[in-house]
Design goal:
Layout lengths: L1 E6 L2 E4 L4 E9 L6 E7 L6 E7 L5 E3 L7 E6 L4 E6 L8 E8 L13 E2 L3 E6 L1
């Protein structure tokens, strides 16, 4: 089994920036794609950004395009989410996720590995 650990959440004012980090350990060879989901109170968990290790395919949700940047290191099995121009609606718990397939799927149920989550709060 692989384990994922996130870091970097916190409180920031609207318009500010945060960088989230996620490191995988354990059986990392089983991870072919990594991504970031978020879940706000009363809402479903949604895929924000993802990257795979086959050609570096990248996905962004429309709501974060142009503001967030995902990057990662296949050898280290680490992934980062640089978040800029943050808005109050970005407030959520952000989860790092890993998948045993190169295909990026938006459904949370398709991802096998999860971090514990890190809170991001954007004040207006």
């Amino acid at each position: 089994q692989a384990q994922l650990v996130e870091s970097g959440g916190g409180l920031v004012q609207a318009g500010g920036s945060l960088r989230l980090s996620c490191a995988a350990s354990g059986r990392t060879s089983s991870i072919y794609a990594m991504g970031w989901f978020r879940q706000a109170p009363g809402k479903e968990r949604e895929l924000v950004a993802a990257i795979n290790w086959s050609g570096g395919t990248i996905y962004y949700a429309d709501s974060v395009k142009g503001r967030f940047t995902i990057s990662g290191d296949n050898a280290q099995k680490t992934v980062f989410l640089q978040m800029g121009n943050l808005k109050p609606e970005d407030t959520a718990v952000y989860y790092c996720a890993g998948r045993g397939s190169y295909m990026i799927i938006k459904a949370a149920s398709a991802w096998e590995y999860w971090g514990q989550g890190t809170q991001v709060t954007v004040s207006s």
